Amino acid sequence: MSVITDISVNEIRKQFPILNQDVNGKPLVYFDNAATSQTPQVVIDALVNYYQKDNANIHRGIHTLAERATTGFEATRKAVQQFINSNEVEEIIFTKGTTEGINLVAQAYGRKFLQEGDEVLITGMEHHSNIVPWQIVCQQTGAKLKVIPVDNNGEISIEEYESLLSERTKIVSAVYISNSLGTINPVPQMIELAHAIGAKVLVDGAQAAPHHKLDVQKLNCDWLAFSGHKMYGPTGVGILYGKRQVLEKMDPYQGGGEMIKEVSFAGTSYNDIPYKFEAGTPNIADVVALKAAIEFMNEVGFEFLHHQEQALLNKGRDILFDIDGFQPIGNAKEKASVISFLIDGVHSFDLGMLLDAKGIAVRTGHHCTQPLMDHFKIDGTVRASFAVYNTVEEVEQFAEALTDIVKKFRK
Ligand code: 7TS
Questions:
Q1: 321 inside domain
Q2: Which CATH number goes with the domain that contains 379?
Q3: Cα of 225 from ligand 1 centre, angstroms
């Protein structure tokens, strides 16, 4: 393993201009990375460069700018293919984010193939984006939504999962890493078990993509959805990976330009994948810039990422858990760099506001996982989520700030 030093983290920090500012008179400590991570200068430069030099609509253009824009757009598709090791570049569909990817699968596959009596299986720790699209398609088709329960550590049991699988299960849709708790689910095993009974599997990789090397061929998932803005890329762009043979069976999701082969008033034939699922002018600039984010992540490397984020998580567990009234929510054995908690006697919104007054950005509330909050019988948590540019010193500042706030409340 390479030697990780604070100097290298400091080198990384320098690439993120947004981090170098005071908020409410204090140096910004950005611990809201599970919601949106910050973008390095290379991503910002790619966006500026695109608008300054290459902006044009893609495909079917014969002029130079259209060609450049198309080349940039398709170069990102190739970079994504390599990033997640998909077999073919055509298996990469650009969306506006994880949410759109899941809705696409629910409507283009679920609505076509689900029937009354079929079941869709999700976990009890899903983001609303991986609940509501399934509720909608279940209402449309008469299929039933079933939920794998979560225990008090914020984990699911593989035995319980197995007992819920049956020949009625047609789709399993599971979050790889929980945004609210950081729990890493046993997704590879879940995929194997689902395939054994003939179900298809969608993996919500929104939180996994920035922390975990994803290899879709090894995972053997049928679909994987994730978002650019959680992996150092721009907002408004996401990826849906799907296996070719599955994508080819799916109906189009939206109708419009690019997704067609030929249109007449008598009828329309559809384009090949991936274009069949990319109706209308896409978010070209952000797709182009996403390549720079992938290159940034490749350069940093998952080994460094893991090491740094686990160091932050361990430091957080060491010093935060001693704070008066500190109550961690979610204590999974396999956990990414997220610390969700409550403090006895202090409302999470108050904590969030008081931390912001000290320049510390955390997220408070239900994190779009209301059923999970119901399970813990709470209405929300305070969530600190770390990225590769965060430092142990920032975790110490966070602990000091929290201690100070709690002391004032206890007076
Ligand atoms: N799935 C998971 C696991 C997520 O964490 C999120 C966003 C989504 C899906 C939806 O992603 P989007 O890019 O389409 O919005 N999670 C969060 C969060 O934790 N705080 O804000 C957004």
A1: yes
A2: 3.90.1150.10
A3: 11
Residue 74 has which token pair?
């398709």
**Which ligand 1 atom minimizes the distance to the CA of 227?**
13
* Residue with CA at minimum distance from ligand 1 atom 4: 206
Beta carbon of 175 within 6 Å of any ligand 1 atom = yes
Domain for residue 246, yes or no?
Answer: yes
- Among residues 234, 263, 298, which one ends one of the domains? 298
Q: Cα dihedral angle (75, 223, 129, 259), rounded to 10 degrees?
A: 60
Atom of ligand 1 nearest to the CA of 179: 5
pLDDT of 197 strictly over 60: yes
* Domain housing 328: 6-30+301-410
What is the DSSP track for 179-199? Answer: TTT-BB--HHHHHHHHHHTT-
CA 232–ligand 1 middle distance (angstroms):
14
Could you tell me if the CB of 179 is within 6 A of ligand 1?
yes
14 occurs within a structural domain? yes
Q: Is the pTM of this model over 0.85?
A: yes
Indicate which CATH number applies to the domain containing 145. Answer: 3.40.640.10
- What distance in angstroms lies between residue 173's CA and the mean position of ligand 1's atoms? 15
Which domain-ending residue is among 263, 298, 333? 298
Instruction: Kindly report the number of other CB atoms within 10 A of residue 23's CB atom.
Output: 15
Domain shared by 123 and 259, yes or no: yes
CA of residue 124 to ligand 1 center, whole Å: 15
Ligand 1 binding pocket includes 367 (Cβ within 6 Å):
yes
Looking at residue 1, what is its pLDDT?
Answer: 38
DSSP per position, 230-245: GTTS-TT-EEEEE-HH
* Residues 275 and 351 reside in one and the same domain: no
Query: Which residues 6+ apart lie within 8 Å of 135 measured at CB?
Result: 145
Out of 171, 368, 395, 399, which one is annotated catalytic? 368
Residue 368 bears catalytic tag: yes
pLDDT score, position 4 = 54
Q: What is the pLDDT of residue 75?
A: 98
Pairing of strands 169-175, 200-204: parallel
Alpha carbon distances (Å) from 305 to 34, 299, 351: 15, 10, 28
Q: Are residues 133 and 62 located together in one domain of the fold?
A: yes
